[in-house]
Design brief:
Elements (H helix, E strand, L loop, with lengths): L3 E2 L11 E4 L5 E10 L3 E8 L2 E5 L4 E2 L16 E9 L9 H9 L3 H10 L2 E11 L2 E2 L5 H10 L8 E3 L3 E4 H11 L3 E6 L8 E9 L2 E11 L5 E6 L5 E7 L5 H14 E4 L3 E4 L4 E6 L1 E2 L5 E2 L2 E6 L1
Parallel strand pairs: 2-13, 8-10
Antiparallel strand pairs: 1-6, 3-11, 3-12, 4-5, 4-7, 7-8, 8-9, 12-13, 14-15, 14-18, 14-19, 15-16, 17-18, 19-22, 20-21
Length: 297
């Protein structure tokens, strides 16, 4: 069963998106929250019916039966993140929630809901008992959300938030290996587009790799690292973060490093080193969301 466009009128509220900043900061004008490494979903409970939908308005309610087992009793529309915990490490696992997100057959969804239960973490409230709250300041919406008693469902919770101390929170998040933090202006209203009043700070991991290939078609550099035997192990494709000047520098030396080629790649001797930043490593040992930072001499 494929996801479909939601027919719930509340689903047509576009979510508020975040801008990126490079570093955490302290400010009494902001609250700061952990950034959950999951998938953004809006949850609507209207006239006894609960729906979950993405920011592109696709209905994913069927994917998460455990979130419906004890539903809300009041009409409500909340914004949050759905995430899974790795049963072996106990850490939030993006690959697990993607497995849940992409499941379509009913029997697979049921098995995964038992094996990899999803958790819905609420960070904002947009409507309650028929009242549109988006025009209220964030701190007021947080007060309303704090006072609401959630259903007795162990898979639904509220995100903690902290006043002013963004740097200390980021340090704690980094020590735990989480994705990052979010800083939100206290008096921000909820707008349906990207806004500089909501900021995300990613806890990047920086590593050195070798560029061992170049795509012949769409742009992409093959990234590799030495394995335990000293051989080069491919770990992903770099497509992001490369400036025109850096591309030009690469192409000026590419031909001199060429060792072989096939229909897709020109393969290079492992002599060109670069620093990349990644969200983390995948379970199969690949770079997740690698972005080029600089060449390493």
């Amino acid at each position: 069963m494929s996801p479909k466009k939601s027919t719930n009128l509340q689903a047509f509220l576009p979510p508020m998106l975040l801008e990126k900043v490079d570093a955490p900061f302290d400010s009494n004008d902001y609250i700061h929250e952990p950034k959950i490494d999951g998938i953004r979903l809006l949850l609507s409970h209207t006239q006894g019916v609960t729906r979950l939908f993405t920011r592109h308005n696709n209905d994913y309610t069927i994917q998460y039966p455990e979130l419906l087992s004890v539903p809300f009793t009041e009409d409500i529309l909340v914004d949050g993140e759905v995430a899974c915990v790795d049963p072996n490490s106990g850490a939030i696992c993006f690959e697990s929630i993607m497995e849940r997100f992409s499941a379509k057959k009913t029997d697979k969804i049921r098995r995964l809901s038992e094996k990899l239960p999803a958790n819905y973490i609420i960070f904002d409230i947009l409507r309650y008992k028929g009242e549109d709250l988006r025009g209220l300041p964030l701190v007021k919406r947080k007060e309303i959300l704090t006072d609401i008693v959630l259903p007795a469902n162990p898979h639904i919770s509220k995100i903690p938030y902290f006043d002013g101390a963004g740097i200390a929170l980021f340090k704690q998040i980094r020590s735990q290996g989480w994705e990052g933090t979010v800083s939100k202006l206290k008096n921000s209203t909820y707008v349906g587009h990207r806004s500089s009043e909501w900021l995300k700070i990613i806890n990047w991991t920086y590593i050195d790799i070798y560029i061992t290939g170049s795509r012949k078609g769409d742009f992409g550099w093959l990234a590799s690292i030495p394995d335990s035997n000293g051989s080069m192990k491919p770990v992903g494709i770099i497509e992001l973060g490369v400036t025109p000047k850096q591309r030009k520098a690469f192409y000026s030396v590419k031909d001199s490093l060429a060792a072989a080629e096939d229909d897709e790649y020109v393969y290079l001797r492992p002599e060109l080193k670069a620093k990349v930043k990644i969200r983390n490593w995948t379970r199969k040992g690949y770079l997740r969301s690698p972005a080029f930072v600089e060449f390493v001499l």
